[in-house]
Design a protein that fits this description.
The structure holds 2 protein chains of 2 kinds. By secondary structure, chain A is an alpha/beta fold. In chain A, 39% of the residues lie in helices and 23% in strands. In chain A, the strands form 2 sheets. In chain A, strands 3-6-7-2-8-1-9-10-11 form a 9-stranded mixed beta sheet, with helices on both faces. In chain A, β10, α8 and β11 form a beta-alpha-beta unit. In chain A, α1 packs across α11. The longest helix of chain B is centred in the last third of the chain and has 19 residues. Classes of the chains: A alpha/beta, B alpha/beta. The interface between A and B is large, with 62 and 59 residues.
Chain lengths: 290, 286
C-alpha cells in the first residue's frame, strides 16, 4: 500500500488544489483529507457522504454546583487556569486531565466524554474519500487525523486499491505529526518566498525526523524565480527529491470557484505542470516501493 | 490587543500583522508571533534579537527504588503517558500534558520531575517595535504551552498585535484568548469562505469582536461580501492582488516602507478597529 501525504509547513501554498488534481489523475486510490481543522478538499471533489460518525475523544471537567462545597481546592490543582474564581470550568481551557475530578473532596466534578467532531466516508467521482470535521475550537486533532488515516487504509485494503492520497494540514505540530508518521512519502508544496523557504525546511526536517522520504514542488515559481532556483538547490543538498514547478496561474482560482479540479477545468499552463509533477511523484513512489 | 487570524493559511495574516505594526509603531507597539509551528513575522520585520530562552514542559520520571507499582499514576493519567508493569515503570514524555496529576497522586513520592524541550522564545527590537516569537522544536506536537509563554511576555501598556496560526483548534484559541479585537484575513474563494466561517465560529466561541480583511480581493468573486453582510460582520479593508506586492513579499520586504499606499491602508485599518473599540455599541457580536 502506498500513501502520499501532501504537506507544506506554510499554509495556502496550494496543497488542496494539488491533491484535487492528483485525485483526477491517479487511478485506483482512496482520498483522505487530514486537514481536519480547516478541511477544503470536499469543496472541489463533490463528495456524497455515505457514512457519518461522531468523533469522541478525551473528557472535560464539569463542576456540579449542587454538589460543590465551594472549598476551591480544584483552583489550586488546575495547571491550565481553566477554573474561574466562581468555580466554573471553561471548556475551552480544560485539557481533560482529570486532576480536579480525582482530588475534589466533595466528588462534585463530573467528567463526561467529549464529542470533538465528526468523520465521514464519501463517494466522489474520483473514488472513495475519508474526511472529517473537527468541532470548532476543539482539541485532539492529532487523534482524529490518525483515525481517518486508519479508516482510509482499511477502506483501500477492503476495496483492493493500492494508493492513498492524503491532504495534510499546515504547520509542524500535532496534526502534522499524526499525518506524516508511517507514510510512504511526503510531498511538500511550497512557494518561492522567504516564508515558504523557512517553513519548507522545518516541515522537511519533521518528515526526516520520522523517517519519511521528502519530495518538494514549488508552486507559483515564477513569482520569484531566484528563490525557486534556491529551493531546488536546497533539495539537492539535503537529499530531498525535487519534483517540479507550477506556474502562477489564475486558472487554479477559477477552477476552485467552479468547484472543480484544475484537471477538469481545461487546458492551461497550470494543468500541464500538474500532470508532469504527478507523473514524477507517482514514478518515484512506485520506485521506492519496498 | 489586536489579533490577526484566518482559518485558511496563506491569506496574508503575517503581511497584515507586520505592516500594521510598522504603520502605527510611533504609538508604542509590540508584535507577538504566536504561529510557533511556522513563525514568519521575523523574516519581514528583521528584529535585532536580544533574548532567547528555552522553554520546557515538566514531565514525570518514575524512581524505581521508591515505586511500589501501585498504578495510581497510570490511572490518573488521561494521556497514556505512564505504563506501570509488574517489573517496570515506563513514561512517554512526548504524550505528557504536564497536568501534575501523577506527582500529586503518588503515595510513595516516587514520581520525579524531568523536562521536555518545547521550543524557544526569542525577543528583540525593530526600531521601536518590540518583537516576541516562539519556535516550536521540530518533532514537538504541543504548540499551546509555548504560545502561552509568548503571550506572557507582552508588556501591558503597549498596543499589542498578535500574529495567530491558521486553523481553528487549540493553538488558535491559545493565541486569540483575551484579545480586544480579532481581524480575520481571508480571500474571496470557496476555500477562503469555508475556512472564514470556521474562524468566525471560533471567535464567537471566545466572544470577541471581529472584522474581516479581504486579501487578493479581485481574485475570486463576491461570496465574502455576501457572507459578511448576512452575518453582520464589517469589512475593514480590501486589498487587490498586485504582482509587485507579491514579489516584494517573496523577498521579505516591509510593504509600508516601499509603498505609501500600503501605509495608508494599514493606517485606515487601524482607524477602523479603533473606532469600533471606542464605540462598543457598534460592535458586531454573535
Amino acid at each position: 500500500m502506498l500513501e502520499l501525504v501532501v504537506v507544506s509547513g506554510k499554509g495556502g501554498t496550494g496543497k488542496t488544489s494539488l491533491v484535487g488534481a492528483f485525485a483526477a489523475l491517479a487511478a485506483e486510490k482512496v482520498l483522505c483529507d487530514a486537514d481536519v481543522d480547516a478541511a477544503d478538499l470536499h469543496l472541489i471533489l463533490a463528495p456524497r457522504i455515505v457514512a457519518r460518525n461522531a468523533f469522541w475523544s478525551g473528557r472535560k471537567a464539569v463542576i456540579d454546583p449542587g454538589r460543590c462545597t465551594r472549598c476551591g481546592e480544584c483552583l489550586q490543582w488546575c495547571r491550565f487556569e481553566a477554573i474561574s474564581t466562581d468555580l466554573v470550568v471553561d471548556e475551552l481551557s480544560c485539557e481533560g486531565c482529570g486532576v480536579c475530578v480525582h482530588f475534589c473532596p466533595a466528588r462534585a466534578v463530573d467528567f463526561p466524554e467529549n464529542n470533538c467532531g465528526e468523520w465521514f466516508v464519501s463517494e466522489t467521482p474520483f473514488g472513495p474519500m475519508v474526511h472529517a470535521k473537527l468541532g470548532i475550537a476543539e482539541e485532539n486533532s492529532g487523534k482524529l487525523v490518525s483515525l481517518i488515516r486508519r479508516e482510509a487504509r482499511s477502506l483501500a485494503e477492503s476495496r483492493g486499491l493500492g494508493l492513498i492520497l492524503t491532504d495534510g494540514p499546515p504547520g509542524i505540530g500535532c496534526p502534522v505529526i499524526a499525518s506524516v508518521g508511517g507514510a510512504s512519502a511526503v510531498l511538500a508544496v511550497t512557494e518561492p518566498t522567504v516564508s515558504g523557504k523557512h517553513d519548507l525546511k522545518r516541515v522537511a526536517d519533521l518528515a526526516r525526523h520520522f523517517g519519511v522520504p521528502v519530495m518538494v514542488c514549488v508552486n507559483k515559481w515564477d513569482l520569484h524565480p531566484e528563490t525557486a532556483d534556491e529551493m531546488e538547490r536546497f533539495c539537492r543538498n539535503e537529499g530531498h527529491r525535487f519534483v517540479g514547478r507550477l506556474p502562477f496561474d489564475p486558472a487554479f482560482t477559477r477552477a476552485q470557484i467552479l468547484g472543480k479540479t484544475i484537471v477538469e477545468y481545461g487546458d492551461c499552463p497550470g494543468k500541464e505542470a500538474v500532470v508532469s509533477v504527478w507523473e514524477k511523484v507517482y514514478g518515484l513512489m512506485r520506485g521506492t516501493r519496498s | 490587543m489586536i489579533s490577526i487570524a484566518s482559518g485558511k493559511g496563506g491569506t496574508g495574516k503575517t503581511t497584515v500583522a507586520v505592516n500594521l505594526a510598522a504603520a502605527v509603531q510611533d504609538l508604542g507597539v509590540q508584535l507577538l508571533d504566536c504561529d510557533v509551528e511556522e513563525p514568519n513575522a521575523h523574516l519581514f520585520l528583521k528584529p535585532v534579537m536580544t533574548e532567547s530562552v528555552d522553554i520546557h514542559a515538566e514531565v514525570p520520571e518514575i524512581n524505581l527504588q521508591r515505586c511500589t507499582h501501585c498504578g495510581q499514576c497510570q490511572d490518573i493519567c488521561q494521556f497514556n503517558a505512564i505504563a506501570i508493569l509488574p517489573e517496570a515503570a515506563l513514561t512517554f514524555p512526548e504524550l505528557c500534558h504536564s497536568c501534575g496529576g501523577c506527582f500529586l497522586v503518588c503515595p510513595e513520592d516516587a514520581v520525579e520531575g524531568k523536562t521536555r524541550l518545547l521550543g524557544t522564545v526569542e525577543q528583540g527590537l525593530r526600531d521601536s517595535i518590540r518583537f516576541t516569537h516562539g519556535r516550536l522544536r521540530v518533532g514537538e506536537a504541543m504548540a499551546p504551552p509555548l504560545i502561552r509563554e509568548v503571550r506572557k511576555r507582552a508588556e501591558k501598556d503597549r498596543i499589542t498585535i498578535v500574529d495567530a496560526p491558521p486553523g481553528t483548534s487549540c493553538p488558535v484559541i491559545a493565541s486569540l484568548r483575551g484579545s480586544d479585537f480579532v481581524v480575520l484575513v481571508t480571500e474571496p474563494t470557496p476555500f477562503g469562505l469555508n475556512d472564514l466561517e470556521l474562524a468566525v465560529g471560533a471567535v464567537r466561541k471566545l466572544n470577541l469582536p471581529m472584522g474581516i480583511v479581504i486579501n487578493r480581493s479581485d481574485m475570486g468573486d463576491d461570496r465574502i461580501l455576501h457572507y459578511a453582510e448576512r452575518e453582520g460582520l464589517p469589512i475593514l479593508l480590501q486589498i487587490p492582488f498586485d504582482r509587485n506586492v507579491a514579489e516584494r513579499y517573496a523577498r521579505g520586504e516591509l510593504l509600508t516602507e516601499a509603498l505609501p499606499w500600503w501605509k495608508q491602508s494599514m493606517l485606515s485599518l487601524f482607524g477602523e478597529i479603533k473606532n469600533r473599540l471606542e464605540a462598543p455599541q457598534l460592535l458586531p457580536m454573535r
